[in-house]
Amino acid sequence: MSKPKIRIYGAMPIEMRRHFRDAIEYFARELMSKQLAKNLNIQLRYKRELDSGALGQCDVLTDNTKPRHFRITICPKSDTRIGRQDIFKTLAHEMVHVKQFAQRELKFRVRSLEKMTWKGKQVNESKVAYEKLPWEKEAFGKEEILFIDYVFYSESEDYFFG
Ligand SMILES: [Zn+2]
Questions:
Q1: Domains of the chain: which residue ranges?
Q2: Angle, vertex CA 152, rays to CA 151 and CA 156, nearest 5
């Protein structure tokens, strides 16, 4: 089976848990080769609040030279349908970052969060506006279409838009 290994943590309705699993598999398949997707190990944490106040976060858990183990944290702002759209768009966004790390497009340089390498070029995060960072541009550019594709693929228009 060419599926990533997925673990989901946090209290949530069963339907949402199922969508998290299905959506992670779907986004991995859309963004990466089968070979890469099946070797991923993804922990998803669903929790009330991120310290940074952000909706989502993607952490590389092990082995920076060949990253395959990731933790995505999703922090819902509300449980309405709009809230669900935001949650799953955020998941799509964070999965783009998983792809960037796993394909080595995005790398940490010398363990410093402020010194990243994007496709071989150093980028100082503190000197570039967040939304202009190349990895964020890609993630924001893809989150909407990935999310919409997933809604139709999973035939869950009612759940997200009903
Ligand atoms: Zn991002």
A1: 5-161
A2: 55
Q: Ligand 1 mean position to 162 CA, how many Å?
A: 28
Query: 136 CA to middle of ligand 1, Å?
Result: 5
pTM: 0.92
DSSP string, 105-126: SEEEETTEEEEEEETTEEEEGG
5-161 carries CATH number 3.40.390: yes
List, for residues 43-89, the tens digit of each pLDDT value: 999 987 766 777 899 999 976 688 999 999 998 876 566 689 999 99
Q: To which residue do tokens 């035939």 refer?
A: 155
- Whole-number Å distance, alpha carbon 133 to ligand 1 midpoint, is 9
